[in-house]
Amino acid sequence: MNSFLKSWLTNGQRPRVVILGNEKGGSGKSTLAIHIVAGLLAAGFRVGSIDLDGRQGTLSRFLENRRRAKAERPEILLPQHRQVSLSRSATEDRSGDEKLDQVVTALEGLSDTDFIVVDTPGSDSVLCRAAHVFADILVTPLNPSYLDLDAMVEVDESAERIVGPSAYSELVLYMMEKRREMRIGDLRWVVVLNRLPNVNTKVTRSVTQVLEELVPRLGFRLAEGIHDRVVFRELFLQGLTVFDGVDRGVLRLANRGLRHGLKEMRDLLATLQGDDRPSRATTPIGNYGRTEPRSETTGESWGRPPAVNP
Ligand SMILES: Nc1ncnc2c1ncn2[C@@H]1O[C@H](COP(=O)(O)OP(=O)(O)OP(=O)(O)O)[C@@H](O)[C@H]1O
Ligand SMILES: [Mg+2]
């Protein structure tokens, strides 16, 4: 491992790193990255952000929009942002080493922050794997569909029996083990169902049930789900989020969707920092850093797969 990364990881004073990861594309990584950045800023933290998705650059583009909005409304808060691996043309790509150097430079430059939020592309790459090495908190959004579930775990044709972990889950378990070996504190893995429909469908119930079964096997926390809401889609071009409404008064919107969306995002932030209770009107998120008891069942042994409905 790169010597900077090694000493950076073992430094107890460094910022906490929150990574949005899932090899399945379109699950909501960038949407959640945007909201986690905005939520941490609204709570008064110094926030850095890194966009590892050089092709789409969704987080970077959102922050460009937000920078423009700030020109008119100075109270809008911005993170210190870095974009990694922006290729100069569609055919040219930078090498894995060159990208890793850029990540190291980005981390060094963001050392005076409390949190660094990293958005990753929806595909496996050397860089994406490397990003999982320095994650303190990994957030994996998943849409409530068997297709998305398949990126986490293999189930039989009726989804009643868990067959084994996916390549991605194995990668995360491996990273958890590596961190333990290196004594750099446990990786906190939070899985969140995103784009939940308003009607409780059979597939949503079934996917939720499988995830609940997986909690003790893979050692993740299953956060309260996030619903499919217009408010999470419509504010991108304005560079705004639900946190800019009720709390900061920038948004002149106070509809139900906004209030409910804000509560969902606050609950997610509470889960990230270890406070799994549902949020009240103002979520305290200042006590990050307490050591979590290590989960007794972190997926070391898959054993015999149990039936979901015995
Ligand atoms: N909770 C939500 N409610 C409504 N729309 C959502 C929600 N989450 C994500 N979306 C929409 O779903 C689409 C995919 O989301 P997003 O781009 O965040 O996924 P991603 O995982 O970053 O994708 P990629 O792997 O391509 O980077 C976007 O159109 C986004 O606006
Ligand atoms: Mg994305």
Summary?
Helix content is 38%, strand content 15%. It has 310 residues and is α/β, with parallel strands linked by helices. The strands form 2 sheets. Strands 1, 2, 3, 4, 5, 8, 9 and 10 form an 8-stranded parallel beta sheet that branches. It has a two-stranded antiparallel ribbon with strand order 6-7.
Account of the protein in words:
By secondary structure, this protein is of the alpha/beta class. It has one domain (3-272): P-loop containing nucleotide triphosphate hydrolases (Rossmann fold), CATH 3.40.50.300. The protein has 10 helices and 10 strands. The protein has helices spanning 3-10, 29-42, 58-72, 96-109, 126-133, 146-149, 167-182, 202-219, 231-234, 256-272, and strands at residues 16-20, 47-51, 80-83, 115-119, 137-142, 153-155, 162-165, 188-196, 221-222, 226-227. Strands 1, 2, 3, 4, 5, 8, 9 and 10 form an 8-stranded parallel β-sheet that branches. α4 (96-109) runs parallel beside α5 (126-133). The radius of gyration is 19 Å and the shape is globular. The model is unreliable at 277-310 (pLDDT under 50). Bound molecules: adenosine-5'-triphosphate and magnesium ion. Adenosine-5'-triphosphate binds next to α2, β8 and α9.
